[in-house]
Design brief:
This protein has 11 helices and 13 strands. The chain has about 375 residues and is of the alpha+beta class.
Length: about 375
């Protein structure tokens, strides 16, 4: 008999600082003005192309985003910097990424009515790691006070959380762990090209956490049985970031545009959205779950139009706000954390036996879906 596994707690840590679209546009447009003025001669000679300003209307129409939270607002809004200022810490200090992971983890543990000693494993799943090694998960393990168990890092870009949930479920079902903490510390402001009009508004910073454990052990007041998980990957260059340790082996590439997030947005929309809708529909069908019983979709929060397309394709009609809750207007795209934020903030109102799907998708391409049912 397959071991029944539940999500027994979630956590969310939000930075104190936020940036509105108006603030972001004012900073970006000042950068554009300075750039065009300093390169006026080359622009006039046709050697460079003048930059175009952004606008709040453009951002909201393109994405549905109204603001975002960041670790450092001042650095991002400095038109001569357009990058967060996050000082390095010594090896003896808790790293920034581990710190925000621990903040989210502690809330998840509290919601699950657990302590760190109850955990057997830590998975840190996110788009970018602060360093190559030691693993961020092992640092989080130590910072939480876990004196036993194991941890490792994993990266499947925006799908890292759902892939991490499946890894946690597999660990519980195969007996290598009874309880797993899966955490997503996303410092997206660090890999965003704030100078690029097409994407300067997309990302925000946050950390989320999920506790996965054996159903028979769970004691929390809000439990969701994991009915099934499904993963899919397909290679594409349409979302890419080429930053890595080999950059130093070719100094000509250091600081190049491709060392930060970049994407072909229209291609991504056209190619990914049908794949996601097809995966969710197929996953529900294989679980003998009629779409009419699907109460909620906690989708990856990258773009409002993408989520509306996917939900409409799955349901066969326009979704309500309750069926496909949106948090990207406040948080922007937080990579792997987006669907977990939506689940964390919009699941407690559903009654026992309600069914839903947590789904994330992004670079790779990668798609992960987790079908759940409320059991407590």
């Amino acid at each position: 008999m397959t071991q029944s596994v539940v999500i027994s707690g979630t956590g969310l840590w939000t930075p104190q600082q936020s940036i509105s679209n108006d603030e972001l546009v004012a900073s970006f447009n000042r950068y554009v003005q300075l750039y065009n003025e300093s390169n006026a001669a080359a622009i006039e000679a046709g050697e460079l192309e003048a930059l175009s300003p952004s606008s709040t209307g453009f951002i909201e129409k393109a994405s549905g985003i109204k603001q975002r939270y960041v670790l450092d607002k001042e650095g991002v809004l400095d038109p001569e910097r357009l990058c967060p200022s996050i000082p390095e810490r010594s090896d003896d200090e808790l790293s920034v990424q581990a710190e925000i992971a621990v903040n989210a983890a502690r809330q998840a543990l509290e919601n699950a009515k657990l302590t760190a000693d109850d955990l057997d494993a830590v998975l840190v799943a996110c788009s970018n790691m602060q360093r190559a090694y030691p693993a961020m998960a092992v640092e989080v393990q130590q910072a939480l006070g876990m004196e036993h168990g194991w941890g490792y890092d994993m990266n499947v870009a925006c799908s890292s959380a759902t892939f991490g949930i499946q890894a946690a479920v597999d660990a519980v079902r195969n007996g290598s762990a009874r309880r797993v903490l899966m955490v997503n510390p996303e410092i997206c402001s660090g890999h965003l090209a704030w100078q690029d009009r097409d994407c300067h508004f997309i990302f925000g910073d946050v950390a989320t956490a999920v506790i996965v454990e054996r159903a028979e052990d769970a004691t929390s007041d809000n439990r969701w049985e994991i009915l099934g998980t499904r993963l899919q990957t397909r290679f594409s260059n349409n979302i890419r970031n080429n930053f890595g340790f080999l950059n130093r082996a070719d100094p000509s590439g250091i600081g190049a545009r491709d060392k930060l997030f970049r994407q072909e947005g229209r291609k991504v929309f056209k190619e990914v959205c049908p794949m996601v809708a097809e995966q969710i529909s197929g996953h529900l069908s294989d679980l003998d779950l009629p779409v009419e019983e699907l109460r909620r979709m906690w989708l990856h929060q990258a773009n409002l139009s993408m989520n509306q397309f996917i939900a409409r394709r799955v349901l066969g009609r326009d979704p309500s706000e309750e069926e496909a809750p949106v948090i990207l207007d406040e948080y922007a795209n937080t990579s792997s954390a987006g669907s977990i934020i939506a689940f964390h903030k919009h699941n407690a109102d559903l009654p026992v036996d309600s069914k839903g799907v947590i789904c994330s998708f992004g670079a790779g391409y990668s798609i992960g879906s987790v079908v759940v049912k409320r059991v407590k």
